[in-house]
């Protein structure tokens, strides 16, 4: 593999925003920060990020105002939308290498969206080739226990033994109610620290905006593979802060 940085937002429990965060961080880095990114959607068989891209392309083709918005966006950006390719966990690395060879501009970062279970064939072997892994976790006992089981196993059996190439494995809080961000999280983080794991400083709030996709009825955009987030909607989402913290960790 070449010098591109491979990143996965990985979890063993669904419903904590793994796919949404992949899209939001990728779009912020590509459209706002100026990095070149790509997404390998290996969450087979649903491949929801590929479906999102295809839906957005159809919407833009069918809607004159969105088509004008897209033209203006890419004229100012002076580069294309980042590539999103469909794959599966077993073939993800080969598909990523093939995609990078075909792209005119090789990406700085390749994001991998993997299934939310380690039992799927190829997930562990693909994760072991990531440079960095970020695990979203919510303050739900079942989600927390499942995530800690996954991250501890990966850290102890693969990272510390040198079987995984990952330079860092980090947890981060999602779906946080600001009114409840208190002693409970401090207690959880003490347990996480005792397991030898790290938690990012940035947390993502519990907000419906994370499910707000491109629409012909709305002018403002939040979650999109083609457009950057609307500036007003970005405020308070902590996506900018999360992306910046990740950039600092991976030394971009």
- The SS-based structural class is alpha/beta
CATH superfamily: P-loop containing nucleotide triphosphate hydrolases
CATH topology: Rossmann fold
The strand count comes to 7
Integer average pLDDT: 92
Largest sheet: 7 strands, parallel
SS strand fraction: 5-15%
CA distance, first residue to last residue: 18 Å
**Tally of domains:** 1
Query: For the largest beta sheet, what order do the strands appear in spatially?
Result: 3-2-4-1-5-6-7
Residues in helices, as a percent range: 40-55%
Based on CA inertia axes, which overall geometry fits?
globular
- Poorly predicted segments: none
CATH architecture: 3-Layer(aba) Sandwich
Helical run tally: 9
Question: What is Rg?
Answer: 18 Å
CATH class: Alpha Beta
Secondary-structure element string = EHEHHEHEHEHEHEHH
Structure report:
The chain is of the alpha/beta class and 252 residues long. It has one domain (5-250): Rossmann fold (3-Layer(aba) Sandwich), CATH 3.40.50. It contains 9 helices and 7 strands. The protein has helices at 18-32, 48-62, 64-77, 92-102, 123-127, 141-159, 183-194, 231-234, 239-250, and strands at residues 5-9, 37-41, 84-86, 109-113, 132-137, 168-173, 198-199. The chain has a 7-stranded parallel sheet, with helices on both faces. Helix 1 crosses helix 9 (239-250) and helix 2 (48-62) packs across helix 3 (64-77). The longest helix has 19 residues, at 141-159.
